[in-house]
């Protein structure tokens, strides 16, 4: 198996494990955190920051999410889902950009 195929398979396995593996957070909650969509407001604020502005995450963000009844284990899982989801979107965008910039596997020098 070529290295690129191995990398893509590893990526798919990671996403599958994060979304479908055992955990304290429900599969629906993990999918919502992964896609950064459809979350309750305090949780949405935390997950949105994790995905797009991780340096801005504060203890208050976690406290607000815990006030909704989430355990630390659930929040940990949802944070991982958010981070993996954002990295998956960036990975897919990078692959799409590479595909658009190449023709038949070679760089497109038309520009």
From TrEMBL:
Origin superkingdom: Bacteria
Q: Which InterPro entries match?
A: AhpD-like
Q: Which SUPFAM superfamilies match?
A: AhpD-like
What name does UniProt use for this protein?
A: Carboxymuconolactone decarboxylase family protein
């Amino acid at each position: 198996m070529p290295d690129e195929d191995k990398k893509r398979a590893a990526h798919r396995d990671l996403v599958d494990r994060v979304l479908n593996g055992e955990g304290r957070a429900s599969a629906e909650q993990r999918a919502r955190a992964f896609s950064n969509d459809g979350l309750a407001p305090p949780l949405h604020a935390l997950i949105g920051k994790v995905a797009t502005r991780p340096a801005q995450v504060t203890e208050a963000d976690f406290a607000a999410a815990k006030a909704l009844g989430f355990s630390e284990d659930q929040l940990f899982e949802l944070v991982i889902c958010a981070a993996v989801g954002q990295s998956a979107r960036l990975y897919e965008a990078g692959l799409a950009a590479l595909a658009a910039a190449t023709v038949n596997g070679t760089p497109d020098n038309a520009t």
